[in-house]
Amino acid sequence: MPSNAIQLAAKLANPAAGKVWALVDGQPQQLADHRGTVYRTDTGAAEQYTELGNLPEGLTTLPRPSVDHSWSDNAWTLDATLQAANRLALTVSLCQSVDTAADVARTAVAGDALRAIEYDRARIDAEQFAAANYQGKVPPMVAAWALNGRTPQQAADNILAEAAHYTVTLELLRTNRLAAKEQIRTLMAAGQVDDAKQLTEQTIASIDAAVVGLGNA
Question: What is the pLDDT at residue 10?
Fold first, then answer.
């Protein structure tokens, strides 16, 4: 017999389900075989287990069904308190995603707070110049845009058109952002998590599309 082998009676050759033969203190024993992927009972995280024998406390072969389940009495059970906490956290996260998308969109249009002030100053100058029937001294902000063959009137009209587009876009962003967040909260409260996630994705896509073509010149 090889030094690393042992002879077993034929009726003992096949171990019971979930077990393997092993030498323990020189004697053949059947030990539980949980080698492979197991799961932590505190977090549900998967890890690799390489030992023979019963799993130590804190590990199980049962995967965690969802983040709303906790380990109790040797089983995963739906935890209402944990579920409520998770849904609240997800609600906040989804709403923050919408707010972030709106912030990025506004920045893409106006650049920063100082650029927004500059745009508003240009709008005021253009309005005043238009109200004067484009006569008299050309306001500085209008004159600055009278480039590449634009007349002062064309520059003023262009500024006003961009300002109107910018205003409409800001109103759209605000309306979509606030309405979506309210709907997200309603859906999450009703347990419609997938619908809330889908609405978030759709709102972000709508926000991104709203600023296409608006640049911070």
Answer: 58
